Each structure stands twice: as C-alpha cells, then as structure tokens.
C-alpha cells in the first residue's frame, strides 16, 4: 500500500468517535453523515483525519475540490484579499474582483451571445435565481424539470429535484407550477426499450406529450437540465438530446437553464459539460468547484434575459463576497496555467478503464459503468437480468474502501451507485492506489 493511504487506527478512530459524541449533542440529527470521521487537514487529493489516518479523496467535498484541497493559488489569493477586505456587500460598496470574475465567466460560458453574470452563495440559490429570471423575462410561471435530477435543498430547488428520500420527504407542500418528465437513462430506459447500445432518445417525446396532457408550452418559462445527472447517478444526457431540447425551447420561447453546479469546471473534461453538445444555454448555473472550497455560485445568461429584471430585483448579502471572488479567480488561473482540462480527460480514461475491468470481473452485479470524462459511476444490482438496485452491496463497498483509506460517495435514484469526484490534478500514484482499493472493495463483497 502506498503512503497516500495511511491508516493508523480503526475507522473511526478514538478522536473521531469523541467528536461524534459531541456532534450528536450539538448538531441536529437532520444533517446526514457520509463518513464517521473528522477531518484535520487536506492537501491535493489527500485528507487526514483527527486520528492521523490519511485517505485518498474520491469525493472532493461533493465535487467542490476539482483543483485539489488547499490549492496554493487559492490559499494565497484568500490570504491577500482577507488582509485587504472581508466584506462590504456588493450592492452597497462594489469591488473589482466581482467585475473581473463576471467578465471571465461571461467569456467562458459557451455561445456567442453577449452575457451577464451575478453571484450568490450556493448552487441551490443560483437555481432559484435562474428560475426567477426566466419567469420575469417570459412572463410565464411553469418550469419543467427531469427525473433523476438534483437542483438543491431550498424550497423551489427541492421541488425541482427528482428524488424524494431524503431530499423531499416530509417537507411539502412544494412550489406550484413545477412539472417533471422522464430523463434519458440508457440502462433503465424510461420508454421500456433495450438501449444497451446507447440512448436512442425515444423518451424525448415525453416532453411533447407533457405539452399536450400536463402544461401548455405557452405557460412554460423554463426547462432546467443537468447535462449529466449528478445525484441521480452520473447519467449523461446524449448530445443529440440536448440539441433537440435547445430546438424545442427556441420553438416555444422557453428559457433553457443548464445546471452545471456539479458538472462544471472541468468535471467532464471540458470547462462545462454542455460544451460536448455544442448547445448554448440561455442561463447557466455554476457553483461547487468554482470557489476552490469557498462558498460562491454564479448565474450567467444571455444579456437580454439577465438585464430584463428591474434594478434591485436580484440580490443577496453575501453573494460574490470579495474573498470568494478572489478564490474563484485563482481557480480560473489554475485551469489556464496547469492544463487541468487535459489532465481531466486523461483521468477520465483511466477511471473508466478501471471501472470496466471491475465490471468484467463481476458482470452479475456491476450492472452499468457510465460517465463523461472523470465524472464516472458504477451501478450495482442484485441480478444482471432483473437489474434490481442493490443499495446494501453499494454501502458495503463504500465501507470496505473507507477501511483501506479511500473516500467514496454514493449516488443514484436508488442509492446503488458509486461516483468519482476526485481532484482533477490527483497524483498518478494516488489515483492508481485509489482505483486498486476500489477494485479490492468490490471484490470483497462479491
């Protein structure tokens, strides 16, 4: 075993267990627990807990650490800005970092249209504002979202999200005028067809059917889509499907919102996942890896749409905080200077290859391997023929990997997928060791 995965105590160790006792007495039990250990420090793709155990991080803070933990550029930018300015509220006293970040994001978001941006604190807040803007611009109320989607935990974002437990259970009533349609999912085709050779787009007709049976297109302000379903199990939307969706939105005057909160900033091998399809969004939401660990999110869209809202209609106290903006600018510098997109594509090839090797060893319960670039996932089933989701086996694999020093995250509508969100600049030996641990963990529960 490499030094990258150093386990010195049982997991969780004694210090983590003591902190867990304090947690239970201080923090609401409504906040979930993915791993039973407490972090002390992290650097690159390695995370060390309070007991001195070091883990290879394939979770990246749920997709936040694409450029790695404690990036020197981000740390330096944060230190420098914190000594100058911590907060003014951009709507009270403006600062240049906000403007520069908007300029750079406008230039990066795909499409030739003139763009505008503004900044908030989280992906959910970005989604809420994107829908607000679309409703204002169109004068319509309805929004269409997809199954297997995740858009956040605030009320509107939660309503848009396509999974009940744990995100929606017990939290209704939900926001009105939100409608849901099936999403492409080759392994479990919503049209009931055999899509083992790849999605054929037969489920696209569900949107047009919804226009007839559920909501008239003249009432629809926006359709919101993740180019790769995130919490839904890392299911890519085919490029042709996104192009068809673009055409449909244009035909009916509907705003196309592309949610790149998890897929953005190199996670799929391009800066934004929608670039694979050549589609220009009307509005794009960004967050997670945008700030290199600091809370910041963006709403970027066509100038005509973004500028339609009256002055003062958009705002937030902390959004686009000067320190967070400085961190985000450092993230963009890192992409430019370290060829992280090139590294992401090479990383994706290695991850997908390793997962397919695991599937070849266990075709009876590794039902599907899929993804886009290093945004990859394996789906576990009890039987290859019935495709019955196997959440229990999935959980055992995660725990087996944790005991060997690998942090993994689950995903999927049924909680039966393992996804990879390691830093894009992970060292080769750390990646190889992490993938080896993953393979052993799957073997151990065969």
From TrEMBL:
Coiled-coil annotation reads none
User: Among the record's GO biological process terms, what is one?
Assistant: gamma-aminobutyric acid metabolic process
The entry's keywords: Aminotransferase, Pyridoxal phosphate, Transferase
Gene3D superfamilies with a match to the protein in the record: Aspartate Aminotransferase, domain 1, Type I PLP-dependent aspartate aminotransferase-like (Major domain)
Q: Does the keyword Transferase apply?
A: yes
CDD domains xrefs: OAT_like
| UniProt keyword annotation of Transferase present | yes
Q: Which domain of life is it from?
A: Bacteria
Q: What is a single molecular function from GO for this protein?
A: 4-aminobutyrate:2-oxoglutarate transaminase activity
Reactions accelerated catalytically: (S)-3-amino-2-methylpropanoate + 2-oxoglutarate = 2-methyl-3-oxopropanoate + L-glutamate; 4-aminobutanoate + 2-oxoglutarate = succinate semialdehyde + L-glutamate
EC nos: 2.6.1.19, 2.6.1.22
Which cofactor does the UniProt annotation name? pyridoxal 5'-phosphate
Pathway(s) of this molecule: Amino-acid degradation; 4-aminobutanoate degradation
The record ties this protein, via NCBIfam families, to: GABAtrnsam
The family this protein is said to belong to: Belongs to the class-III pyridoxal-phosphate-dependent aminotransferase family.
What name does this protein carry? (S)-3-amino-2-methylpropionate transaminase
């Amino acid at each position: 075993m490499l030094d990258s995965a150093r386990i010195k105590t049982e997991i969780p160790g004694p210090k983590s267990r003591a902190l867990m006792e304090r947690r239970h007495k201080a923090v609401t039990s409504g906040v979930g627990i993915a791993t039973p250990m407490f972090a002390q420090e992290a650097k690159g793709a390695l995370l060390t807990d309070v007991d001195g155990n070091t883990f290879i991080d394939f979770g990246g803070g749920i997709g936040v650490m694409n450029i790695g933990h404690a990036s020197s550029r981000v740390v330096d930018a944060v230190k420098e800005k914190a000594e100058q300015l911590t907060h003014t509220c951009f709507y009270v006293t403006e600062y240049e970092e906000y403007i520069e970040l908007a300029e750079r994001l406008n230039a990066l978001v795909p499409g030739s249209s003139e763009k505008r941006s503004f900044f908030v604190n989280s992906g959910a807040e970005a989604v809420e504002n994107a829908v607000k803007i679309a409703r204002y611009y169109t004068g319509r109320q309805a929004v269409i979202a997809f199954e297997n989607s995740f858009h956040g935990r605030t009320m509107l974002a939660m309503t848009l999200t396509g999974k009940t437990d744990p995100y929606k259970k017990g939290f209704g009533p939900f926001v009105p005028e939100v409608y849901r349609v099936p999403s492409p999912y080759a392994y479990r085709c919503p049209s009931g067809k055999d899509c083992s050779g790849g999605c054929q787009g037969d489920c696209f007709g569900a949107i047009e059917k919804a226009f007839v049976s559920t909501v008239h297109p003249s009432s629809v302000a926006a359709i919101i889509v993740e180019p790769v379903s995130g919490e839904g199990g890392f299911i890519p939307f085919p490029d042709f499907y996104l192009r068809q969706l673009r055409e449909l939105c244009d035909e009916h005057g509907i705003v196309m919102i592309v949610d790149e909160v998890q897929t953005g900033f190199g996670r799929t091998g391009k800066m934004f996942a929608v670039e694979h399809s050549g589609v220009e969004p009307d509005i794009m939401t960004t967050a997670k890896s945008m700030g290199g660990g600091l809370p910041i999110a963006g709403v970027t869209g066509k100038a005509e749409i973004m500028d339609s809202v009256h002055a003062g209609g958009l705002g937030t106290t902390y959004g686009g905080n000067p320190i967070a903006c400085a961190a985000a600018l450092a993230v963009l510098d890192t992409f430019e200077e370290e060829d992280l997109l090139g590294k992401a594509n090479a990383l994706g090839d290695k991850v997908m290859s390793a997962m397919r090797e695991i599937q070849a060893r266990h075709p009876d319960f590794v039902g599907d391997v899929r993804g886009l670039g290093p945004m990859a996932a394996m789906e576990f089933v009890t039987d290859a023929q019935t495709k019955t989701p196997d959440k229990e086996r999935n959980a055992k694999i995660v725990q087996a990997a944790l005991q060997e020093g690998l942090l993994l995250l689950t995903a999927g509508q049924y909680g039966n997928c393992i996804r990879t969100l390691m830093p894009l600049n992970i060292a080769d030996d750390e990646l190889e060791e992490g993938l080896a641990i993953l393979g052993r963990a799957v073997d151990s529960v065969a």
